[in-house]
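wait is this the right file?? whatever heres the structure
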């Protein structure tokens, strides 16, 4: 849950706080868990609601939007420091672009790409259909590719 929240919010400290809040809320609301989905799906749903609320609070309080970049641990197998720095810069840029996506698209990209969840489970977490999750992922990836190509042309 923490890794997902870190990718969603772009802030390690906030992700840690939200993770703790999610587990506390899960514990407090354990009686409401009906077993219609996996426990992890239910907990993800709680965590994502908390993330959406935190992101919205950040957007309202920051005129430039939600663009903080988290502390990152980027494993890069490139041999030289220039290549590693370039890889970190690319990863940071990608994470900033992901943070700019609408909430649902961002959630689908994070859950699919970083957590490797199937569309069926993503749909359960988000309370939508599998088709809707696939469409959101497609639109998000299309936006990310478009932004990347625009930036590549401007360099």
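ok assuming it is, sequence goes like this
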């Amino acid at each position: 849950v923490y890794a997902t929240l870190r990718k969603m919010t772009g802030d390690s400290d906030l992700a840690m706080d939200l993770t703790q809040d999610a587990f506390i809320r899960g514990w407090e609301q354990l009686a409401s868990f009906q077993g219609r989905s996996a426990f992890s799906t239910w907990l993800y749903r709680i965590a994502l609601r908390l993330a959406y609320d935190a992101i919205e609070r950040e957007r309202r309080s920051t005129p430039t939007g939600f663009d903080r970049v988290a502390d990152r641990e980027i494993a890069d197998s490139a041999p030289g420091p220039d290549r590693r720095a370039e890889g970190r810069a690319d990863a940071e840029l990608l994470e900033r672009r992901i943070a700019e996506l609408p909430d649902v698209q961002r959630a689908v990209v994070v859950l699919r790409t970083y957590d490797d969840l199937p569309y069926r489970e993503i749909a359960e977490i988000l309370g939508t259909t599998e088709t809707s999750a696939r469409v959101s992922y497609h639109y998000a990836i299309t936006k990310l590719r478009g932004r990347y190509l625009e930036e590549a042309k401007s360099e």
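The two ends are 36 Å apart (CA to CA). so i think its the right one actually
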